[in-house]
Amino acid sequence: MTAFFALATSLLWGLADFGGGLLTRRNPALTVVVLSQAIAAVVLGAVVVATGGWSEAGPRLWFAFAAGLVGPVALLSFYKALALGPMGVVSPLATLGVAVPITVGLFLGERPGPAQVAGIAVAVMGVVLAGGPELRGAPVQRQAILLTLVAALGFGTVFALIAEASTTVTGLFLALFVQRVTNVVAGGAALYVSVRRGAPALPAGGFPWAAVPALAFVGLADVAANGTYSVAAQHGPVTVAAVLASLYPVVTALAARGFLRERLRAVQAAGAGLALLGTLLLATG
Length: 285
What we know:
Helices cover about 80% and strands about 0% of the residues.
């Protein structure tokens, strides 16, 4: 059961990443974040009411609130990086966020094992190589790598905060609801400021009604992935669940290869692979 739900997590996260990247190529990134998270918040609100999640309210929800403030920054950076592409490089680099919970553990007195030390070294090498020769001559590629690393830091921070926000399944639903409501409020405020500065809130054709199903899929797939990962971790070793769930960049890369016919330079493919390998070593150390 652990393997099944963890692999389902990889599939859902990978497809959500791919969908978010595609939507951002045609719509403002902030708009994609706010609309997809708003849809997810509505659905989660219904789930919380149905499961009686409000009874889990307590001081731990401040962690969910903090995660909600960090989340929009991470998502915005990630979607912009995906829009700049290529997805096969961006998505694996974003998995380096797993280093954040490990760092938190270091401050709490834990010490990394040999596998974790090796993972850090391999992951850093992957970051350097993933930019390929374009790091020298293409500002867009430098920007994509930087945005991806910002997203990774944000995602890792969100994971660490959400882990402290609940201890039960119903509490997790409530924490995710609080997180996404905060996402929408923070993202909406950023969108308002962006529009006041002259940036468009909508694409040239107006409100993207045709994209609503895709926006819903992105938001709900992300929520579902959190749920399947929680089930996987509760029914087996967290190490196994973390390793299998961290394979989601493979889904994104395969989707980009299949639908967009993306081709990576050999050095970029090698860097992306090393980043993914480093992530797996960090998760299993």
